[in-house]
Write a structure and sequence with these properties.
single chain
Length: about 120
């Protein structure tokens, strides 16, 4: 196998790895957006709970049935959900940062390999 063929194979392998990292990054961005949406929905619910009077009825949809729920329990559930979502957002942010760094490193590797490939092709 010639040096040019070896470089071509290396370039193809790195290119495939780069595309995989890009797909993972896209999935992480979608996850982050979904979590953001859930966080906003839960904050709106939290604001609505703050407006309710103490004797207000709260119902939770479980399957096709509305079930009466204690206000304190509902507030605690929403608060816990918000905490969980915020923790997930932090985790996804770290994942995005890692993927961004991997993407940049792989892009630099690709450019170097491509440059070496072009130099090898120019020497023929």
């Amino acid at each position: 196998m010639s040096a040019a063929q070896a470089l071509q194979r290396k370039f193809e392998t790195e290119s495939a790895a780069y595309q995989t990292i890009q797909k993972d990054y896209s999935k992480a961005v979608e996850s982050r957006q979904r979590l953001d949406s859930q966080l906003q929905e839960n904050k709106i619910v939290q604001e609505e709970f703050a407006l309710l009077q103490g004797d207000a009825n709260i119902y939770k949809l479980i399957g096709p049935v509305l079930v009466k729920q204690d206000k304190t329990e509902a507030v605690v559930n929403v608060d816990k959900r918000i905490d969980f979502i915020q923790a997930e957002i932090e985790r996804v942010e770290k994942q995005l940062k890692d993927l961004q760094e991997k993407t940049e490193k792989k892009r630099v590797d690709l450019v170097q390999t491509q440059t070496m490939l072009q130099q090898a092709a120019g020497q023929k």
